[in-house]
Amino acid sequence: MSVPDYMQCAEDHQTVLVVVQPVGIVPEDQFFKIYKRIASVSQVSIRDSQRLLYIRYRHHYLPENNEWGDFQTHRKVVGLIAITTCGSAKEWPQTAERFHGQKEVYSATLYDSRLLVFGLQGEIAEQQRTDVAFYPSFEDCSDVEKRVEDFVESIFIVLESKRLDRATDKSGDKIPLLCVPFEKKDFVGLDTDSRHYKKRCQGRMRKHVGDLCLQASMLQDALVHYHMAVELLRGVNDFLWLGAALEGLCSASVIFHYPGGTAGKTAGRKPSISQPADAGKRHRPGAQEVLIDPGALTANGISADTSTEIGRAKNCLSPEDIIEKYKEAISYYGKYKNAGVIELEACVKAVRVLAIQKRAREASEFLQNAVYINLGQLSEEEKIQRYSILSELYELIGFHRKSAFFKRVAAMQCVAPTIPEPGWRACYKLLLETLPGYSLSLDPKDFSKGTHRGWAAVQMRLLHELVYASRRMGNPGLSVRHLSFLLQTMLDFLSDQEKKEVTQSLENYTSKCPGGMEVITLPDGLKLPPVPFTKLPIVRSVKLLNLPVSLRPHKVKGLLGQNMATASPFIYSPIIMHNRGEERCKKIDFQWVQGDVCEVQLMVYNPMPYELRVENMGLLTSGVEFESLPAALSLPAESGLYPVTLVGVPRTAGNITVNGYHTSVFGVTSDCLLEGLPGVKTRKLHFLSSLTNSSHSTKLHRSAHTPQPMSKEELSSTVSVQLFNGETQQLTITLENIGSEDIETLELTSKIVSTKEFLSWELDEPLSHLPLKHGQAVTLTVNIKVKLDFSGQENLLQDLNDDGISVTGLPISSPLRQVLKPRPETKPVSSESGKAEYSHIKTLEAVLNFKYSGGAGKVEGYYRELSLGVHVDVEPSVFFTRVSTLPATSTRQCHLLLDIFNPTEHELTVSAKNNQDLVLHASECQRMAIQVDKFDFESLPQPDQETTRFTNPKQLEEERQHAQGCQINSKLGICWSIISFQWLQASVEGVLNQLVLEHLQLAPLQWDVLVNGKPCDCDVIADCKVGDAVTLEVKLTNLSKNSVGPLALTVVPYQDYQNGVQNYDLEDAVTFIGSNTFYIDTVKPKENAVCVGALLFLYTGDFYLNIKFQDDSAGRELPLAWFTLPSVHIKALDAPLQAGA
């Protein structure tokens, strides 16, 4: 026997073997259809008995195996069912002859046979025969199973008779010696009368009867016979048959302990009525627990009454003893070279039993022994079968990697060099089955979580073999998929040279069959998932970039609360907030706009030792229609983190989710999802409806230089200009609609970064051109008017002092012209810091914000904003370094003295109202005297009480001084001009101090003196005639907030000789008509009072009147400046004499 039956199990010893074979020409599909129906009758309950007969069917069985039927009766073919087709009666004799010829093959062991004839009808078919059944067709054969059951019962009758015949043989005849085929020649010439020979015969017969009892479902009897056979055969050292007896004992015990079988779920048998589930009562009904006594054997035969045999051991082996007896039996089989198949099958049976007992380590020892059993020259097909069964058995006991090893050996055997036509498909199928054992799966997702499982070197070898097998199968698509999987999952374990070789092979394969993301379905239904190249390149982070500043949408503040739905009526719910935490992390806090190019930045890394070319790289999105604009990039070897920007254009509004990106590397197209990347999350973003878009350009009447950095605020663009203090410039801005939507609204606001507002504009004319269609432009003008402080500061005085001018000895407020001397050579004037310090250039910055909207985005309440930065460098034009006042001849006027410095490099002209122009050379300082009327500051608008209550007093004072300064500037009208510039204004507001303001303020008490009805003030000289009465009128106007008076004024005349001598002794020259003292009663606010007197000049000459207040006057509580009366100059003339002359 050279071909083992690897599917055998211990319970097969209880079965009878029936061969089902075709006779003549029978369609294969029809044969196996009938064969399956026959095989369904696997156990038959014998009538008039509680026993079952188990049948094992085979459609192919070697006759040489049948020769081992005496050794183990379950190997003996006891039944033959032949299936044939016969179309006519003429063919019947030939068919019958063939059937008889088939029976001759197994004639030595057959108990009974049957012939199933299909297609024959007529007289022959109507004949009643027990061994032949006629059916008109393969479809019309409903009683096949019934006939098979009858056939099995006939086999049982023969089996039972043989069992009884052998068990009850008490004649004096010698017991025949049962032999295996290879023993027959060894027993020729032996002494058949020796005691040793007789015991051998008895032992082998006992073992044979045990087999028959086991087949006849007499389990307890079989156990008794096996025990007795073991004792007999052990005594004569008949090791081969001793092993068979031990194996029979093990099989019977296994059947007793495991009525469900050991062949697994598919081949397991149902427990019969003779094998109840209760393990403690599994004996055959009516049988009792029997103990044997080997010494109870008779000399001439076998005692038939086993119930009288009492021994020292129980019949049934324990589960542990079963394995020990299997080991012993296998060791005996191993002594015989020709019993290799028996030994191998015993190992397989023991492994199945150990698998049931979950004793994997001991089972592996049996399998290891089976590996080294030599069965002689095996065909390639037999080798494949052997390794496949070993693999299945290792899988059965949980040795998955060992199972995969033998499965792979079987796969390699399928394509051995000695096979004329290698079976690459079978090889590929077996290799796929080895993957789980090596911790491999064909899904790359299993390799993206946690640490790597399994031996990478073995896994790579197996994947290479899968690639080669797929190529030899003629399926390059499979090769590409497996090679892609190898490169993606094993990249960290490949050397630089291996990486290069794998990628070259992949490029060769993809040149014939490009790789994609489709699922590959194999013929057996196995699906190979796609393999995205998430490591070529490796993406470390994904960042959605906001739109440029000029394109970002802004929500109208009044509409922020609209379109916002709440999922809960509660202000805060910890449950909802917890559930939505992850969603909020994924949501981006800015928005993209439909129709605009949007950017996503990926930080990628090239792990390959050479340049990596990535083609057709774009975004994978969901939610809205999104047009991805693919990019191609080339990453240097082991590049480190490298930024890559992917762009796209959303075509509709709504929410978008950036799920991943797609690439094409080495000819393989990959869709890489962010969810599978470590540390990278899916990003969600909201898209607005389309908004209009515009650009702007600027134009200055004077060329602008390079702008300096402004604030940190992001600007669309900037413009810079350099102006003199007090100069005005116009900035022309052109706005063009470069978007697809119309511009429907436009707003312009400014944000001053430093100092006060210096920009102004008019929007009426540009707004009249709205809506602005695509390609149209509108122009608006912004006025830049700089008016900073014109006062000279302390650092300027220090600069002047450094240049050799004595500030203390010769004040720069001197009316003399002071020309600055050149700076010493040692002072680093040429340095940038020196220039900046000396030139006193100041900077003004502002941001012009253009808010515009249009299209569907305007309906939703969104707008866009363009920001134009305006940078103005202000150079000083004139400096008012010092200011003072001198009284004028009129009480309502005074002289304002200004020290003016020209800090420019040009000649500068300064003018004021009613004053001569003053020309200043570069770096020159001069004084200008300006006669001005005093100012009534009380007439300025006063803040109301509400404002006064809630405003800082310091701020109120600053506002008051500013209003006073503006009034003074408007009265002075100081202008300056350089070269061909127009006249530009200058302000003295910065140099005015409190004392100067007091001098410039009109006194609250206004005194008017009239001589003969004419006012006398300034240099006005009143004329009168000698001897005529001169009317003197003093008028007081109270402009203060309080009442004033009563007051007493005394008029004292005097003459001034213009040499410092004044004559007050004029009693003979001037006479008062009435008193020289004037009395004024209390004058209420906003009212006036007038007192009138008269005097008479007796001589001609120039007389002056000094009007003084009496010391005891109540008005002395008020400031002295309030009581300043104009001087009165009267010239007395001798009118008649002059006329006569």
TrEMBL record:
Q: Which UniProt keywords apply?
A: Golgi apparatus
Q: Does the keyword Secreted apply?
A: no
Residue ranges occupied by any Trs120/TRAPPC9 third Ig-like domain in the UniProt entry: 887-978
GO CC terms, sorted: trans-Golgi network
Show the segment(s) annotated as Disordered: 265-284
Entry annotated with the keyword Iron-sulfur: no
Q: Report the residue ranges that make up the Trs120/TRAPPC9 first Ig-like domain in this protein.
A: 539-667
Give start and end of each Trs120/TRAPPC9 fourth Ig-like domain: 1023-1131
Location comes to: Golgi apparatus
Major place of residence: Golgi
What are the Trs120/TRAPPC9 N-terminal domain coordinates in residue numbering? 186-259
Q: Which residues form the Trs120/TRAPPC9 TPR region domain?
A: 364-508
Family, according to the entry, reads as follows:
Belongs to the NIBP family.
PANTHER family noted in UniProt? TRAFFICKING PROTEIN PARTICLE COMPLEX SUBUNIT 9
- What name appears for this protein in its UniProt entry? Trafficking protein particle complex subunit 9
What organism is this sequence from?
Answer: Lates calcarifer
What gene is this protein translated from? TRAPPC9
